[in-house]
């Protein structure tokens, strides 16, 4: 009988202890939830703020340099509508792409990961299915996704189409692209929130904006200062895009040899694109989260490269604009000087749409949620990385120092924004210490990164429309 009573007492004690554990876990969970909510709130936002029903538009512009936009200090009035967006949102003055051409940079921009294609960017299968895109994540969160793109690298066989209910990729200009997006908006009756990705190719060579957008800049003060005479690349055996100190064949306009003409043509393309972006912005619902950026920049004479990109990984081809506008975090026209990367865009969007999901899944991304910068939060980053098939770079984000390692062993070290005074041979204690630390970090990073995005590439061939688009851009002969 005593043994039976002891067994009953032990059972009661076990039940009691289990109940205590459950109560403790409930309290802990509730408290951690409060702490998390406090972490995502700032600037008067409610502690439980999230925006699962906000519409989203990602606007990417091909080959757009930030220093040719008015909001970034350019003297020409190339971008009145983009400037207005920057005044309503926030703009990051030190955003870097992961690479200097469309396919190589976009695999990171659309996934939030340091990815790199290992094969040709002229074939299908650029992005393997095991790497989820922003469209795929948002689809899981109940979004209707539509892509209106104007670059053959985003064709159906590449992997960028995954997650989209509508995916249109075609030959056209900013007017046609914008008409397509506005048509979609005017006819959208779905109750689900939408995600739109629109890509404008217009600032990409050969710079063929309508004449009235070019004439605005003809014979102005900047025109008179850019009076260097150039020659067309004489080599017949090279890619028509290759500059090598000359005007690339793909960019050459008949009988036009002066640099001022090409800079004005490039700026005319920006103005033309900006005009149509202004049309688009007027049609967006008020709750839309707007992100405007570029896939990469453009070389306009720096390092003896003209009207091209993808030949190196200097900042003229890596620096990109990043403007974000929403109703809670990114507003007020603030200029943000902190160094950020294009791979931060996906995690930042997802953290706004579903902060609890992101809190549990942030380790899926190499990029950071950069809205914390808006409230002076340390996002715990020391370096960002960029790369191309024959070179890799590491950038120290606080001191703004950049180290480049080439496949042939050549090294470069710069204190930005100066990328002409190579300090790699400087043996002073300070410089040699910085060089050795960045060299070691990059080489350790390269043991695991960048990750091949085209592992198990899809073996689909390009269709004729895609091939025609690539030929028009000079990628195919």
Structure summary:
With 477 residues, this protein is an alpha/beta fold. Helix content is 33%, strand content 17%.
Mean pLDDT, as a whole number? Answer: 87
What is the quaternary state of this protein? single chain
Topology order in helix (H) and strand (E) letters:
HEHEHEHEEHEHHHEEEHEEHHEEEEHEH
CATH class of the domain at 56-381: Alpha Beta
Report the C-alpha radius of gyration, rounded.
25 Å
Q: Strand portion, in percent?
A: 15-25%
Number of helices: 13
Content-based structural category: alpha/beta
Largest sheet, if any?
8 strands, mixed
Which regions have little confidence, pLDDT < 50, spanning 5+ residues?
23-48, 457-462, 470-477
Name the CATH architecture of the domain at 56-381. Answer: 3-Layer(aba) Sandwich
What descriptors fit this protein?
single chain, 477 residues, alpha/beta, Alkaline Phosphatase, subunit A, eight-stranded mixed beta sheet, four-stranded antiparallel beta sheet, 13 helices, 16 strands
Describe, in plain words, how this protein is organized in 3D.
With 477 residues, the chain is an alpha/beta fold. The chain has a domain of 326 residues: Alkaline Phosphatase, subunit A, CATH 3.40.720. It has 13 helices and 16 strands. The chain has an eight-stranded mixed beta sheet, sandwiched between helices. The longest helix has 39 residues.
Secondary structure blueprint with pairings:
Blueprint lengths: L1 H39 L15 E6 L18 H9 L1 E7 L5 H8 L5 E2 L17 H7 L3 E6 L16 E4 L4 H14 L6 E7 L10 H5 L5 H5 L33 H24 L6 E6 L4 E2 L5 E3 L6 H4 E7 L8 E8 L3 H9 L1 H7 L21 E6 L2 E6 L4 E6 L4 E5 L13 H17 L5 E2 L11 H10 L4
Parallel strand pairs: 1-6, 1-7, 2-11, 3-16, 4-5, 4-6
Antiparallel strand pairs: 2-10, 7-10, 8-9, 12-13, 13-14, 14-15
Helix pairs in contact: 5-8, 10-11
